[in-house]
Write a structure and sequence with these properties.
Number of strands: 18
Organism: Streptomyces cacaoi
Oligomer: single chain
Protein name: PucR family transcriptional regulator
Domain PucR C-terminal helix-turn-helix: 470-528
CATH superfamily of the largest domain: Reverse transcriptase/Diguanylate cyclase domain
Pfam families: GGDEF_2, HTH_30
Shape: elongated
Family: Belongs to the CdaR family.
């Protein structure tokens, strides 16, 4: 059995080395490693030979370099190794080697006898190559860590193969395309074979090897206790020509998956500890804002929390969905989503959701609070899109000064969040500076006659659609200034769907939403229903 040149080089017998030409020939099969004697002797080298020279035998900056490449190509040699030339490699030599796919490799100093002996032993015992590759993977990951990019990079370099990280549907989330062997001009995007799909979605996943047209695909699950199901898989596509031992590939994948799982677990524990420390510190600050201890002040400094300044609090909570469906790292996901929306804040877990706040030297004005609300909403939408069936809402407090002000603003934010939870929209956000007007409506509509009027206005919509979808659409449409595009984005449907629903609503109610009186009456009715739903029946 032969060994691929790139695998042989990956064993480190020649480190450090440089491929100066013919990199497209690194997949050549090596049948033996032999010492070079002279350029003329290259012509009689057995096919598949890797020839090792010293600088004196083959100076790449000399006139015999081109001749050596031609002799090696004629003999179907696997490649040439020699010492680094003193004056660089001629352009004609590199072009010639590139054209014929002959790998030309250099190293600063070569012990010809030792290199030939070590490499030839690997070629004659491919199982040793496999063991060495596995050992190399273990050594590299021990030094570099186990993050996904690191694991993929190590496996790719050592195995000289296509590697990727897949989800349970077979989509490559990071790394190389593993399924190009299945593609053709007639079918550029084929469905994955059942053997792959069923394996990835198995309730009790196990490592497996699947034969493809020109090679095989090795898969290894990433299982993080206590879950038994694998949401991620490491995969290696090895062409038949590569000669990679399946056992060695499976072992290398197993080590990579183990390193990745260990890295995930360690990161999760660190994040959990940091989250707990944040929550404990905030609780201490909110319970005793008038007398912050020295230790609490020091911890706040370490976390980058300025205690003195103008704070604007934000309270995020779950308005729809089961909290059990949320992953444990939702707070971190929310923090990342807010950062992507342009809001760099620390998100802290609370018993009823999450809080964060902005601190500035001066209080935010109304326009700035409105901008803040837009960024918060963008962050909530991003989290909702990653968690089906979950709906978040948020309240924003008024700016207030110092630790006492932080506590006050967060209390206001929580109250505003309760009002936001009553809205039938995705990522609803209410600002405390607007809640006062909402409370005026709330108080007025607390009277039963007003409720009766509200229901009489909306009842035809409920009669036509008992699910309440038309009422929710009308409320959202009016909240977003009669924008079909904005309403569609909030409700997660196509714009044309909103246009059709609004047309149906107009027909059922017999109103003209371009008329200020009709529009105001409809808006008051939908908003009053939301407010009275929040307070409960009178």
């Amino acid at each position: 059995m032969s060994v691929v040149l790139s695998q042989l080089l990956a064993l480190g017998r020649l480190d450090p080395y440089t491929v100066v030409a013919g990199a497209n020939g690194l997949d050549a099969q090596v049948t033996g490693v032999r010492p070079g004697e002279s350029v003329s002797a290259l012509g009689s080298a057995p096919a598949g030979s890797l020839i090792v020279f010293t600088r004196e035998q083959l100076p790449l900056d000399g006139p015999t370099a081109d001749l050596a490449v031609r002799f090696a190509v004629a003999a179907s040699a696997a490649g040439i190794i020699t010492e680094t030339p003193l004056h660089g490699v001629a352009l004609s030599t590199t072009r010639l080697a590139d054209r014929h796919g002959l790998a030309v490799i250099t190293a600063e100093r070569i012990d010809q006898s030792a290199v030939v002996q070590a490499m030839d032993a690997n070629v004659r015992a491919p199982e040793v190559v496999g063991s060495d590759l596995v050992a190399r993977v273990l050594d590299e990951l021990e030094r570099k860590g186990g993050s996904a990019p690191v694991v993929l990079g190590v496996l790719r370099d050592v195995l000289a193969a296509h590697v990727g990280l897949l989800d349970s549907s077979g989509r490559v989330v990071e790394g190389d395309d593993l399924f190009f062997d299945l593609r053709s001009d007639e079918n550029p995007a084929p469905a994955l074979p059942d053997t792959i799909v069923s394996g990835l979605s198995a309730s009790h996943p196990a490592a497996r090897t699947i034969d493809l047209t020109n090679g095989y695909l090795a898969l290894h699950p990433v299982v993080v206790p206590p879950r038994a199901r694998a949401e991620l898989w490491f995969g290696v596509y090895a062409p038949t020509s590569a000669g990679l031992l399946r056992k060695s590939v499976r072992q290398a994948l197993s080590i990579g998956a183990w390193a990745f799982t260990a890295d995930l677990t360690a990161g999760s524990l660190a994040n959990e500890l940091e989250s707990r420390n944040r929550a404990m510190l905030l609780s201490e600050i909110l319970e005793h804002p008038e007398s912050i201890s020295r230790r609490a002040a020091e911890r706040a400094v370490l976390l980058g929390w300025p205690l003195f300044g103008w704070h604007t609090g934000v309270h995020v909570s779950l308005s729809a969905g089961d909290p059990a469906d949320l992953p444990s790292g939702t707070g971190r996901d929310l923090e990342a989503a807010l950062a992507d929306a342009g809001l760099e804040v620390s998100v802290v877990d609370r018993p009823d959701g999450w809080v964060c706040w902005l601190t500035d030297e001066v209080a935010l004005d109304t326009a700035e609070v409105k901008t803040l609300a837009g960024k918060v909403r963008a962050g909530l939408l991003a989290v909702e899109s990653d968690n089906d069936g979950i709906r978040l809402c948020a309240g924003i407090g008024t700016p207030a000064q110092g630790p006492e002000g932080l506590a006050k603003s967060l209390r206001e934010a929580r109250s505003s969040g309760l009002l936001a939870a009553s809205r039938e929209t995705m990522a609803a956000v209410e600002r405390t500076d607007r809640v006062g007007f909402s409370r005026v409506l709330f108080a007025w509509y607390s009277y039963q006659p007003a409720r009766d009027i509200t229901m009489s206005v909306l009842q035809p919509l409920y009669d036509a659609d008992p699910s309440g979808q038309l009422v929710r659409t009308l409320a959202c449409y009016l909240d977003y200034e009669s924008s079909a595009t904005g309403t569609a984005a909030v409700l997660g449907v196509h714009r044309n769907t909103i246009v059709q629903r609004v047309g149906r609503i107009k027909s059922i109610l017999g109103i003209d939403l371009t008329d200020p009186i009709d529009r105001l009456a409809a808006h008051l009715a939908t908003r009053a229903e939301q407010l009275t739903d929040l307070d409960g029946p009178g």
